Amino acid sequence: MSNLRAIKKRIGTVRNTQQITRAMKLVSGAKLRRAEERVRAFRPYADELRQTLTSLVARGEGLQHPLLQPGSSQAPRLYVLVSSDRGLCGAFNSNIIRTTLRHLEEEGLSPNDVVFYTVGRKSTEQAKRRGWQTLGSVAPLPEPPSPELVARIAGDLTEAFLAGAVGQVR
């Protein structure tokens, strides 16, 4: 009889866990939708900025800004890997790594030929686990990410490029 009671208790525990997991899934889905909406709202601005910069570079033969010059061909490429801090987003984090590896393969490179800058706990863990060389990392991410954090990351990337430590930032 006590065995039956233990089984019923275990079933109740599993049901409670399912409810909690379902609630977490709903919350993360709502957060993802909000983030996607912000990205969609930002897209026209980013496209316009890209067009403006492309136009400026195309017309400015004498434009000598150091960030617009080709980087050192001897220096490795820098790849920025952005992931989440938790694994509650389906295959998102593993798709980031898989897509990066596929891109490197298409470029004829291996992860040992490049340097990574990781943003988010999952990409930082993957880079460490795989023994990849990292220039820097930001983990865990603050909620919500701040403009100061973005400025710090941009500063790190810019500094590495201008110092010749990396030839390209992707």
What features would you describe in this structure?
The protein is 58% helix and 11% strand. With 170 residues, it is α/β, with parallel strands linked by helices. It has a 4-stranded parallel sheet with strand order 3-2-1-4, sandwiched between helices. Helix 3 (121-130) links the parallel strand 2 (115-119) and strand 3 (134-138). The longest helix has 58 residues, at 2-59.
Question: What would a concise description of this structure say?
Answer:
This protein is α/β, with parallel strands linked by helices and 170 residues long. The protein contains four helices and four strands.
Q: Widest sheet: strand order?
A: 3-2-1-4
Indicate the low-confidence ranges by residue numbers. none
Separation of the first and last Cα atoms: 63 Å
Q: Class by helix and strand content?
A: alpha/beta
Total domain count: 2
In which range does the helix fraction lie? 55-70%
Q: What is the 3D form?
A: elongated
Largest sheet: 4 strands, parallel
Q: Give me the strand/helix succession.
A: HEHEHEHE
The name of the CATH superfamily of the largest domain reads ATP synthase, F1 complex, gamma subunit
Strand % is 5-15%
For this structure, the CATH topology of the largest domain is Pyruvate Kinase, Chain: A, domain 1
CATH class of the largest domain: Alpha Beta
Provide the residue-averaged pLDDT: 88
Write the SSE topology.
Blueprint: H1 2-59, E1 77-82, H2 92-106, E2 115-119, H3 121-130, E3 134-138, H4 147-162, E4 168-169
Parallel strand pairs: 1-2, 1-4, 2-3
